[in-house]
Write a structure and sequence with these properties.
By secondary structure, the protein is α/β, with parallel strands linked by helices. The chain folds into 3 domains: 4-48 and 444-555, OB fold (Dihydrolipoamide Acetyltransferase, E2P) (Beta Barrel), CATH 2.40.50.460; 57-250, inorganic pyrophosphatase (n-terminal core); 339-437, Roll (Diaminopimelate Epimerase, Chain A, domain 1). The protein has helices at 12-22, 26-34, 40-48, 63-76, 88-104, 124-132, 148-156, 199-211, 219-228, 235-250, 254-263, 271-288, 292-298, 303-338, 356-367, 393-399, 423-437, 458-464, 520-523, and strands spanning 4-7, 80-83, 108-111, 137-141, 160-164, 170-171, 177-178, 184-186, 344-349, 371-377, 380-386, 406-409, 413-419, 444-447, 449-450, 479-492, 496-503, 506-513, 529-540, 543-555. The strands form 5 sheets. A 5-stranded parallel β-sheet has the order 3-2-4-5-8, with helices on both faces. It has a 5-stranded mixed β-sheet with strand order 9-10-11-13-12, with helices on both faces. A 5-stranded mixed barrel has the order 16-17-18-20-19. Strand 17 (496-503) and strand 18 form a beta hairpin.
């Protein structure tokens, strides 16, 4: 109810021209124009872009050097250790690299740090592991760009290192990147003009350079990492995700088939079922324990093993959900009791560290503030942070680095560690930064196009589905309609608002607002409402109908 509604406008004549020139509806033309896709050529490229149109991997800085280093490792006959990370992007990128190296003719094993024993990043335990296995090379995926000491330790022990990452590097006072010593460094953040890839996307590019077209069969893993991470689903990321989803849909790969079945995502799932069905189950092992389980699962080739592992990941995910709800309830209670200003920094003794990021994300969305959730153990506080679009979290934490033991991440997500006694000072300093830089905390509903309900035919909605895959940088279409009547509103499930909406007494459409039950009391006396929604095709018991997934409701504004 307290969101700022902004309808993005486009020149009506140009909308009609683009629609005629490309054979798409006016509503879809408006959406594309407002997303910067403004010419017939751009529209064609958006919808028909092919995976073979990706940038030549050898054009990316560092990849040629990495290929040379890996080729030398092959000629030496020594094995290679792949060092991943414990989230889905890190797991998927490690699986890509292990499989690519094995196909390239090397003996490759992997090390995934344990969230609780090792923490985030390129860890010295990997150096010990590489030495014990007689490796000559370590290849990192989704980590390593700030691991100065571990890279130095590896070199001192005669190990070459190839770092593949996509996180922000440290920088000097002039803004120049500071990087560890390594035989090769691949990170799009080190060069302008390179695609903003996920860790799995970077690993896939190196796999392409090693294997050529044979690497295309690894796109299912690359799509999982891309959809799981906060990278924009435009350009190369869109091509990777789109081709990878197609591969997931038709995959004969045993772990993908098993995971789809266990998650209830049969056939050809879109980005939403993958993001909310497959990815949380892959993420669960790293949140609660050993993410090596997920890599081992992805690399399994026996159906019996894959189905057993998928069932275990499902069990762990259910436990993750239980722990998440418990921590979320305690954190919400503390916030309501203590209040907040510019930022929310909330802590608790012994909160399970594996669920802090999800809780921080939920709280940031609920209260529209950057949020840090910390678990205190003895004199240390470790946690996760999530931000709002108006505040660059990585920049903010960089300015407060003297208060922190370690930190790292992106504009919108980060991990950090500090002394427990510094929490209050850190909360005040972060709040001041946020208040200085964010003039308006209201969430903005950027409505792609205003429509009449009569425009939302089955064919129209099916056409909009061509915008898939959805995610960061390419959200689901958000449409708006004014002056609607509410018919038979009721609360269903766990706080969901269900109703029909009609316009001028015609075109009744089913609508549901997930977690929007609180809106009922604001709308009871409204003669009419305005709605912001994403139209979808709802399928149940063999039937199909247009449904509006509500994102906002308010009393009608004339």
């Amino acid at each position: 109810m307290n969101r700022l509604w902004v309808v993005q406008r486009a020149n009506k004549d140009y909308v009609e021209y683009l629609g005629r020139a490309t054979g798409i509806s006016s509503a879809l033309a408006r959406i594309l124009i407002n997303r910067g896709i403004k010419t017939p050529e751009a529209v064609s490229g958006f919808f028909s872009g092919d995976i073979r149109g990706l940038m030549d991997p050898l054009e990316m800085k560092g990849i040629a050097g990495a290929v040379r280093t890996i080729t030398l490792a092959k000629s030496s006959g020594k094995p290679v250790l792949v060092h991943g990370d414990y989230d889905v992007d890190g797991v998927a990128s490690a699986a890509i690299m292990v499989e690519a190296l094995r196909r390239f003719g090397l003996s490759a094993d992997y090390f995934i740090p344990n969230r609780f024993d090792h923490g985030y990043g390129f860890h010295e335990e990997a150096v010990s592991r590489a030495m014990r296995m007689g490796a000559g090379l370590i290849v990192t995926t989704d980590c390593g760009i700030t691991a100065f000491e571990t890279a130095r330790l590896a070199r001192e022990n005669g190990l070459e290192v190839v770092i593949t990452d996509h996180h922000e590097p440290e920088r000097d006072a002039e803004g120049n990147p500071l990087v560890p010593g390594a035989a090769a460094l691949i990170n799009p953040k080190l060069s302008s003009g390179e695609p903003e890839l996920s860790g799995a996307g970077v690993a896939f590019k190196l796999a392409q350079a090693l294997l050529g077209d044979d690497a295309l069969s690894l796109l299912d893993f690359a799509a999982l990492g891309t959809l799981a991470d906060m990278v924009p689903l435009t350009g190369e990321n869109r091509l990777i995700a789109k081709a990878g989803l197609e591969l997931i849909g038709s995959s004969e790969r045993a772990p993908i088939k098993a995971l789809k079945e266990i998650a209830g995502c049969p056939g050809r799932p879109g980005s939403r079922p993958v993001s909310f069905g497959l990815i949380p189950r892959l993420n669960a092992s790293g949140r609660l324990g050993d993410a090596s389980q997920a890599v081992r699962f992805l690399l399994s080739d026996r159906e019996e093993d894959a189905y057993g592992a998928a069932r275990e990941l499902d069990r762990i995910n259910k436990e993750r959900q239980r722990l998440e709800e418990a921590v979320h309830a305690e954190a919400r209670a503390a916030i309501e009791r203590e209040g907040f200003e510019g930022a929310i920094v909330v802590s608790g003794e012994g909160w399970h560290r594996g669920v802090l990021g999800i809780v921080a994300s939920r709280i940031a969305e609920k209260y529209r503030r950057p949020c840090v959730v910390l678990s205190v153990e003895s004199d240390l506080a470790r946690g996760s942070a999530r931000s709002i679009p108006q505040f660059n979290l990585h920049e903010g934490l960089s300015e407060l680095r003297e208060m922190l033991i370690t930190f790292g991440g992106h504009k919108q997500a980060a991990g950090l560690k500090l002394q427990a006694g510094m929490i209050g000072k850190f909360r005040s300093a972060l709040s001041r930064l946020v208040l200085d830089r964010v003039p308006d905390f209201r969430a903005t509903l950027k409505i792609d196009a205003d429509v009449a309900l009569r425009e939302l035919s089955m064919n129209q909605v099916r056409e909009m589905c061509r915008l898939e895959p959805y995610g960061f940088g390419n959200p689901e279409p958000l449409l708006g309609a004014k002056g609607l009547e509410i018919l038979n509103p009721r609360v269903v499930g766990k706080g969901h608002l269900k109703m029909k909406l009609s316009q001028q007494g015609h075109f009744p459409v089913d609508a549901i607002g997930f977690d929007m039950a609180d809106a009922m009391r604001h709308l009871e006396e409204a003669a009419a409402v305005d709605a912001a929604f994403t139209p979808v095709i709802n399928e149940w018991e063999g039937g199909r109908a247009v449904q509006l997934n509500l994102k906002g409701l308010r009393p009608a504004v004339s």
